[in-house]
Amino acid sequence: MAFVDNKASSSKSSYGGKGKGGKGKPAQPRLKTNQAKRLKIDEELKELQTRVETWVPPAEITLFNELPLSSRTIKGLKSSHFLNPTPIQQLAIPSALRGQDLLGSAKTGSGKTLAFLIPLLERLYLDKWGPMDGLGAVVISPTRELAVQTFNQLRDIGKYHNFSAGLVIGGKPLKEEQDRLGRMNILIATPGRLLQHLDSTVGFESSGVKVLVLDEADRLLDLGFLPALRAIIGHFSPGVASSSSTPTKPNRQTLLFSATQTKDLAALAKLSLYQPEYINCNKAGEEGVVPSNLEQYYAVVGLEKKLDTLWGFVKSHLKMKGIVFVTSGKQVRFIFETFRRLHPGLPLMHLHGKQKQATRLSIFQKYSTSKHALLICTDVAARGLDFPAVDWVIQLDCPDDVDTYIHRIGRTARYQSGGHALTLLCPSEEQGMLDRWKEKLIEVKKIKIKESKMGNLKQQMQNFAFREPEIKYLGQRAFISYMKSIHIQKDKSVFKFSELPAEAFAESMGLPGAPQIKFAEQKAAKVRGGEKKNEQKEAEEEKEELAKIGVLDVVGSDEDSDEDEEEEDEEEEEAQDDEEEEDDKDESGDSDSEASSEDRLPSKSAPAVRTKYDRMFERKNQSILTPHYTALVSHENDKDENEDDGDDNDDVFTLARKDHALSDNEKGSDIEDDDEDLVKIAQGKDIERDDSKEPLISSEDLSKRKLKAATSKRSKLKNGPLGEKLIFDENTGESRNFYETGKDIETKFNDPKERKEFLEKQRKQMLVDNEIDKKVAKEKKNELKRKRKEREREMRQEYMSDDDEEGGPVAYIGGSDQGDYSDVDDRESIRSPAPEEEVRNKKKRKNKFKPDVNDAEDNRGNMEDDEALALKLLQGSA
Ligand SMILES: Nc1ncnc2c1ncn2[C@@H]1O[C@H](COP(=O)(O)OP(=O)(O)OP(=O)(O)O)[C@@H](O)[C@H]1O
C-alpha cells in the first residue's frame, strides 16, 4: 500500500485547487480557473452556512436534497443510492449541522451511520478543512468489523469530498500506522488502538478534532471501554468533564449514537456531551423498539432438543440467508464443525471473537455477499453489522437481556426490508423472557415446532465424538462454556441454572456424560492455607489482566489492544487451549460472578468442586504428561474416591501434614531436610525417613516452580551422584576410570615426586580438556541459538506475509496517493482520486467529461469494487 504525502501547500488551497498548472497548460489561465473555482466554493459555503443557520424543518422531508447539505454530499449520497432520509437522519442531521451535541437513538437498521457521517463531512467542509489541516473528525466503533463497515460507507458518500480517511483498528504494528496518522482528516477507530496512538504517537495531533462520534455507544460500554473513552476524550479539546462548575463549550462537537438506551449511556453522555439534544426514534408504544417489518417468533424447546431443532430448521430453509446466535465461541465451533460434517446443503460460516482478524473480515465479507448461507456466531456479530438481505435470525441460546435480543434481531429487517426472528427458549426461560419483552412492549409470537420437523442428531453426534476426539473435546468445552454462561447470568428470573437438563444436553451433543465444571465460590471455599493466598493472587492477576484488556483491547475482552496477541488461529487455539484459562463467554463473561450452592449441576453426576489443575489433568493429551504428573492424576483419582467417603480433600496440592505447629528444635532441621527431600523426590529417589517423624512435604506438595527447580539440570548436577568417565582397553575390553582415584595413584606411584608430577600433568590435561569441552558446548549452544533464530525469522516472515494479507489499517476515502491537485481543475470534484479511480478518470478524460448520471452509473457498477478495494486496502494487498 503506497502512501504519498499530499503536496498541498496550504490547507485551504485544496478547496480551490492549487493552481500549479497542469502539464501542457499555461500556468496563468489555470491560476485564474482555480481562483474562480475557489470563489465559487466560498460562495457555496457561505450560502450553505446561511441555509444551515436559518433552516426551518418542513412538515415532511422526503429527499436528502431538502436538507441543507453541500452538493458534494448530495452527489455522494445519490451515487450510493441514498435518496430519502430515514427518520433518525431527518432529525439528527439538521441539529448536528448546527453544531449541537447529540445523543441519538433509533432502532436497529434505521440508518444511524449516515445520521452521523453526513454531518461529519458537512462540518469539515463548512470549516474548509483540507488535507493538511490534520485530524478533524474521529468515529469510535466498538468492533473492527463495524469500523470497516462505517469506513466503507464513508468512502461511498464522501467520494466527492477531498478528505483523507483512515482506519485505525489494530492488527498491525503500531509503527506502520503511526507514519500515516498525521495525514488523516477522518479516522474510524476502535478505542484501544486509538488510545495507544494518542498516548504514544509523537506528532499525532488530536486537539483540533472538530467532530467526535461514539457509535454503538451502548456496546462500547458493554465491552468495558469506558476508561478508554474517558482517556480518549481527555486527549481531545477540553471537554465537559474537565471543566469546572460552569462548563465551557468545547471546540469539539460530540455525537453519540446507540440503538438502545441504558443507564451507563447517561453516564457516558455526561462525560462527553455538552448540552446535548436527545433524539429518540425508539418511542416505545408508538412505533416500538424493533423494526416494524420484522416478524418475531419464539418456541419453547428443551435444551437437549436445540440442536435437533436447528438442524430441522436448516433442512427446511435451504434457500435462506440466516444467522444463528449462540452464547460462546466454543459452541459456535462445535455446531459449525458437526453441522459441516452433516452436509446440510446450505453454505455454513462461523464467526466468533477468537478468530484471527483476517479470518473475521473475510467471513464478514463472504457472508455479506452470499445469497444463501448460514452464519453461526456469537454476539460479536450482534451489533451494528449490516449484512444485506438476511432472512432469518435464529437465537439458539436465549439472549443475555432484551437489549441483546434487540441487537441480534436487528441483523435482519434492515432499513425497509423484511425479516424473521426465531428465539429458542428453554422451558425454564420462557416466563422470565416474556416478562422482559413485555417491559419493552415487544411482542413475540409463540410457535410450536413439530417433533416430526426436528432432526435426530444424537446418534450422529455420538459417532463424531467417538471417532474424533477433537469433536468430543470441543463438545465438552462447548458444554462447559454454555453451562458456565448460564451460571453467571445476572437475571436469575430468566436463567435458572439448576433447572437445566445437563445430562440430556451433554448426550444430545454426543458426549458420554456431562463434563464436570468448576465454580468460583466452591473453589474459594475449598482452598486452604497457602493455597488460598495463591488462588486469590491468581484471581487478582486475572482481574488485572481483564482490566488491562478492557482498556487496551480493541474488540472487547476476548476480542480485542493488541487483540492480535490474544487472537488464536483455530488450530492453534485447539492446541494451545490446554495452556489457557479461558473466557467462559466469548465476549462478556462475568468472571466475578460466584456460584450459589443451589446452582450446582442438577445431574446425578453433579460435579465436585474442581480446580484448574483438575482441568489440566483432563486434557486430551494426558498421555504426554510426565510420570510425575501422571502420578498426581492417579493421586487425584484416589482422592475422588475419598470424596465419596465424605472426604473433601479434593485439591491436588494437599499438605500431608496438617499440623503446622513445629517445635523450635524441629523447625530449622526439618526445613533443611525437607528441602533435600524435595530435591530427591523430584529426582525420583527414595528418601530415608524417620518413621516417627511425620513428613512435612510430600511429592504432591511440590509447586510447579519448585518441581522445575528441583528437576533442572543445574540441580541434578549439584545434588546428583558424581559422574564417572570410563575408558575401555581396546584389547581386553575392560573398563577403568578415566580420572584415576587417589588410591589408584598411590599404588601406581610410590615416589611422591613422581606422583606430584603425574598429578600436575593430569591437572593440566584436565584444564585443556575442560577448555575443549567448553568450546564444544559453546558451539552446540550457538548452533541451537542460530537454529532458533532462523525459526523465529521464518515465523516472523510468515506472520508478516499473513499480516500483509490481513491488511494495512489506514487508507484514503477517495485515495490520496496522487497528492497532486492539478487534476482538480479538470474535474468537478476536488477530491484526490484513488489509484484505480485515477485509471478510470484517465479513461473518462479521454472520452471527455461524463455527466453525473454516468458517474453514478459508474460508481454503482463499482460499488462492490470499492468495497473490495477498501477491504484490500485494509488487508494491505492493494
Ligand atoms: N436513507 C437511506 N436510504 C436507503 N438506505 C439506507 C438509508 N440509510 C441507511 N440505509 C441502509 O440501511 C441499512 C442500515 O443502516 P445502518 O447500518 O446505518 O443502521 P443502524 O441504525 O446503524 O443499525 P444498527 O443499530 O444495527 O447498527 C444499511 O444497509 C444502510 O445502507
UniProtKB/TrEMBL annotation:
Q: What InterPro entries does the entry give?
A: DEAD/DEAH_box_helicase_dom (IPR011545), Helicase_ATP-bd (IPR014001), Helicase_C-like (IPR001650), P-loop_NTPase (IPR027417), RNA-helicase_DEAD-box_CS (IPR000629), RNA_helicase_DEAD_Q_motif (IPR014014), SPB4-like_CTE (IPR025313)
Q: Respond yes or no to whether keyword Glycoprotein is given for this record.
A: no
Q: Which Pfam families match?
A: CTE_SPB4, DEAD, Helicase_C
GO BP annotations of the record are: rRNA processing
Every copy of the Helicase C-terminal domain together lies at 293-465
What PROSITE patterns does its record include?
A: DEAD_ATP_HELICASE (PS00039), HELICASE_ATP_BIND_1 (PS51192), HELICASE_CTER (PS51194), Q_MOTIF (PS51195)
| Comp. bias (Acidic residues) | 556-596, 639-651
Query: Which residues fall in a compositionally biased region of kind Basic residues?
Result: 705-717
Limits of the DEAD-box RNA helicase Q domain: 62-90
Query: Does the keyword Disulfide bond belong to this entry?
Result: no
Helicase ATP-binding domain: residues covered: 93-279
Q: If you read the UniProt record, what top EC class would you report for this enzyme, in one word?
A: hydrolase
Q: Where is the composition biased (Basic and acidic residues)?
A: 522-537, 611-621, 656-670, 683-694, 771-782, 849-863
Locations listed in the record: Nucleus, Nucleolus
What keywords tag this UniProt record? ATP-binding, Helicase, Hydrolase, Nucleotide-binding, Ribosome biogenesis, RNA-binding, rRNA processing
Q: Where is this region: Disordered?
A: 1-35, 522-722, 771-865
GO MF terms, alphabetically ordered = ATP binding; hydrolase activity; RNA binding; RNA helicase activity
| Chain ranges for the short sequence motif Q motif as given in the UniProt record | 62-90
A single cellular component GO annotation = nucleolus
Reactions catalysed according to its record: ATP + H2O = ADP + phosphate + H(+)
TM spans (from-to): none
- Family membership: Belongs to the DEAD box helicase family.
What is the documented function of this protein? RNA helicase.
* Recorded domain comment: The Q motif is unique to and characteristic of the DEAD box family of RNA helicases and controls ATP binding and hydrolysis.
Name the UniProt record assigns to this protein: ATP-dependent RNA helicase
